[in-house]
Write a structure and sequence with these properties.
The chain is of the alpha+beta class. It has three domains: 4-145, no CATH class; 165-262, no CATH class; 271-307, no CATH class. The chain contains eight helices and twelve strands. The chain has helices at 24-33, 77-84, 148-218, 227-237, 253-262, 271-274, 277-290, 293-307; strands at residues 4-8, 10-13, 19-22, 42-45, 56-64, 67-73, 90-95, 101-107, 119-123, 128-133, 242-246, 249-252. The strands form three sheets. The chain has an eight-stranded mixed β-sheet, covered by helices on one side. α3 (148-218) packs antiparallel against α4. Residues 145-210 form a coiled coil. Keywords: Coiled coil.
Amino acid sequence: MKWFAIFKTGKHTDSSGNEKQWTEKDLDKIVETYDPSKHEAPIVIGHPKSNAPAFGWVDKLKRVGDTLYALPKQLANEFVEMVNKGLFKKRSISLYPDGTLRHIGFLGAQPPAVKGLPDVEFKDDDQSATIEGEQFTDLEDAGDQKSDNEKIKELQKQIDIYQKQLSDMLAKEREFEQLQSKYAEIIVEKNRLEAELNKQKRESEEKEFEEYLDKAISDGRLLPKMKDPITKIFKIISLTPEFEFSEGVKTQSTDVIKEFIEKMPKLIDFMPKLIDFKEHKDQKSQAFDNEPVSKIVAEEIRKQMGNK
């Protein structure tokens, strides 16, 4: 709860015409004589005579300069809402004849007798003095205002909550970083395995194509010196695994080269000459018997190339 002003020094006249000059000493007497253990002054609406409900209680009084302040406690929620809505902008104090605080009354829209100054009203029926006035310029609304210590405690609770939220966020951030690191490791391993698999596949395809070229050479469709250039073409064209020559029809790149080779005519015809060993013997049997087969094959290749 927070202190709020209830009265000031000065000359005040009540509705009965009684006038008094209130000094700081008078305010000090009100503070000194207030003992909640003997009489706990209620906070009420208006100035009830008796048996009216209390919407709060006065815990302490103090004087600051020319102003008297009260510290409330146990304020009713509905009363706090009404005060905060501005339904009661005036405060009044009721004093016993000995100057002890009887109650603090919150008033509505009724204006005081003198603008800017508190009015003094002495009630004949109960011999208590009621002093009421306009809202003080430094008056602070009562309500759910907290003392500084209570505010500090509340702020500390909020700090603790924010610290826990921050700690949770940092923990999640560390977990996220760990997941990112694990994800990166998996991606690296996946790329490594894919590269290894592609390498094995490429080596297998190159080996298979090399065997195909060797057979094409042995069949006479290619010359041996064509093997390296065609192999280079194969490596380049194999970078694009498939070609689409017509809509919806895809062809393997290696099949394109193979189809080209298959349609080529034989460049060398080994069989007729290589199997006719008798003809060689008839012409030069002794020399033929002494020559190695590789030399004979080379000679036949030269002849065949000469005929092309």
